Amino acid sequence: MSFTRLMEAATRGNLEGVRANLGDLKKVDENGNTALIMAAYNGHKDCIFLLKKELGMQNSYSWTALMYAACYGKEKCVRLLLSEAGKSTMEGSGILISDELEVSFPAGITALMIAVHQNHPEIVELLLPYEQGMTDSNGHTAKWYAHNSSWEGDFTRVRELLENEGTERKPPPSPDLLDQKYVNDPSVEMESIERQHTLFNSAPDETRNGLSFLKDQLEKFREMYETSNKRVCEAEKSLTDAREEVSSLKQQLNNAIDESKRHAEMCEDLRRASDQNRALINALTTEKATLQEQLSKAIEDLKKELADQKARILALEEENARLRGESLITAVNGEDLKAIRKRLDQAGQKDSSGMTALMHAASRGQTEVVRLLRPLEARLQDGRGWTALMHAVGGGHEECVGLLLLERDLKDGEGRTAAEHAVDEKMRKVLVHQPSFPRLPDSLSGYHLTAVLGRGAFGDVYAGHGNSRNVAVKVVSLGGHDDEERELLRREAEIFPSLDHPNVIRCLGTGKDNFEDTFVLVMDLCCGDLCEEMNRRKKANSSYSDQEIWKTIREVADALTYLHEKKLVHRDLKPENIFFGQDGRCVLGDFGVAKVLEDSSWMATHAGTQSYMAPEIYRGEGYNKSVDIWAMGVVAYEMCTGDRPFESVAAILEKTPAPHLEGRPSDLATLISRMLSRDPKDRPAARDVLEEAMRHQ
Fold first, then answer.
1. Residue 66 above 70 pLDDT?
2. What is the CB neighbour count within 10 angstroms for residue 212?
3. Where are the annotated coiled coils located (predicted)?
């Protein structure tokens, strides 16, 4: 762009020229300069009002009109350009300050920093409220420039202004206030009119006929000036009132200080009372220690008496087991899982030494047996007070130790914990380390947490003990989740406690801690899940029998029939969510993404686990409870073959059916094939699956 006539008029301060060429507004020259920048550079404040539409524009160096006015000490221009405060340059630039001196500024420089560098204290005082605390690309504030300027002179006043440079900034005034300032400062137009008056005096006679008009205008502006003076007087009166109010506030502050002194005296009295209470507590602590010593002796006497009673009871139990034939303990010693499952009703019985089946399994390192018996016999102790964990430690069985950490707080008859039984340093560190357990709500104070069982996206699961039983406790921290996840957790909290079915995991209690922002679910402690069982079988190269598969289908279908008739869809059926109850039956759990079918039987939200999700979910279509049937078909197929029918989303969406089930009865293969129908209408209902499975008991 070229140098316009408007820029030329603004450079010279020619108001008539500026008015005549306002059509060139917002045009820039080859350096990006505007007419407003030219006027500010040369200190022509009269032109700024006429050029206000160019406020905020920056040239090729990112400099504004305010920056140039601040650089060259044009204070009156700065006052009119304060709406540009707060802007900074985008890149570094070299500016010619005088004929001999060029100064290089970094990116991020502000008008305040420029005024500081050039030692213009009156402009610094104007800009400080709007730009204090801003930093350039080197991290320097205006205060740094006050001590590191290359400009000569006495910077004392500037440094005083910036001594306590803050970071809170006022917003710059609106550009619309420029009109008000221009009206409230009639001297601007008066000076213009007077210059025109001088020109008319020197003009030919034929132009002097406008002099009378200009005099009238001058008289009007003088009247406006008197009005402005009146407003100034009113402002001074308001200032006086404000000073009186400040004086009143000072008196209130003095009263508050006196009150604070009285509070300090009260605090000192409380401190003395606290010291007296502390002395009383020390005396009570000494008395408590004496009582505890007496209590310990009484407990030892009771323990001896109890041990004698236990010995008599054990003898009776041993005789009873002998009369009943093969016991649970005998089955454990034979490592027969099927026999163990058949005798789970004997859980809790002990042999002549007071050992339970779980203790025998732990001492032998039988990991799967320990996993099965843990919910039933954990936290019991033999005649010596040993727990199953102590027997596992004594045998050096690390996997069993990991499963039995929920007993680590118990002590034997000699007052020793499992950690004190450990010889291996690595095992001792595992036992000595006490995890940090969350606090349970007051409504669940009858339970206490004993070990960490697992951690997931929606909460942590702990082993717990209370009401004479071992339980699983799910603790969900609500604060770390977004609104969608909080809705899933809220849904599980509403749905889960209302369910009552033999094949649905039982909820024993719920609670909420508003202070910790957590929700707690207490449920039965299960004996593992189907995923763990399938992995164990795969490692042992052991397949499921037809009857075992029918049993699983029957029990899962029974649970789904119950849920579907209550208008509930599980939506995340998979082996990890099919648990084993204490009697070996399958129970469904984890209702975090379950959905209530309301007026419509169709849903559209994307939920579930990828490998077990029905094709209609991937296609983005509406879906209903038949997605649970598809997932059950995938689980049944996986039990039959050890592999899933489809290993990718693309395979799920293809029209090719799942590979045929070789070596399985045709009625079982046909049922699984129907459950894996890609058209939801062709899949059987949960009750139909249940009835078919019942025929194969």
1. yes
2. 9
3. 211-326
User: Can you say whether residue 56 is alpha, beta or left, with left for phi > 0 and alpha for psi between -120 and 50 degrees?
Assistant: left
| Residue 535 to residues 75, 146, 400, 544, 618, Cα–Cα distance (Å) | 82, 73, 18, 12, 27
Q: Rounded mean pLDDT of the chain?
A: 86
From CA 174, how far away is CA 178, in angstroms rounded? 8
φ, ψ at 456 (rounded to 5°): -135, 180
Provide the pLDDT for residue 325. 52
pLDDT digits (tens, 9 = 90+) for 503-519: 999 999 999 887 777 88
The residues that bridge with 659 in the sheet, in sequence order, are none
Type of residue found at 364: R
If one counts every other C-beta atom within 10 angstroms of the C-beta of residue 661, the result is: 18
Between β-strands 447-456 and 507-513, what pairing exists: parallel, antiparallel or unpaired?
A: unpaired
Residue 430 pLDDT exceeds 50: yes
Per-residue pLDDT tens digits for 586-598? 999 887 655 554 4
Cα 109 off chain centre by: 37
- SS3 string, 35-51, reads HHHHHHHCCCHHHCCCC
233: confidence class by pLDDT, cuts 50, 70, 90 = confident
Alpha helix positions (H), 344-405: 357-364, 367-377, 388-395, 398-403
Euclidean distance between CA atoms 471 and 526, whole angstroms: 8
Give exposure, 148-159, as e/b (b: 16+ Cβ within 10 Å): ebeeeeebeebe
Indicate whether 663 pLDDT > 80. yes
Q: How far apart are CA 73 and CA 142, in angstroms?
A: 16
Closest C-alpha to 687, from 623, 608, 629: 629
The structure tokens listed for 112 are 């305040």
pLDDT at 317: 66
Single-letter code of the amino acid located at 33: N
Q: How many helices (H) and strands (E) does the chain have?
A: 28, 11
Say whether 628 is catalytic: no
- Global pTM value: 0.50
The average pLDDT across 162-171 equals: 91
The residue that leads in pLDDT, 637 or 493, is 637
Residues 636 and 628: beta-carbon distance below 8 Å: no
| Active-site annotation holder among 136, 524, 572, 628 | 572
Convert the pLDDT of each residue in 314-347 to its tens digit. 766 665 555 455 688 888 887 677 788 778 888 8
Q: Could you give all domains of the chain from N- to C-terminal order, each with its CATH number?
A: 55-185 (1.25.40.20), 189-322 (no CATH), 326-432 (1.25.40.20), 442-524 (3.30.200.20), 530-694 (1.10.510.10)
Is there a binding annotation on residue 26?
no
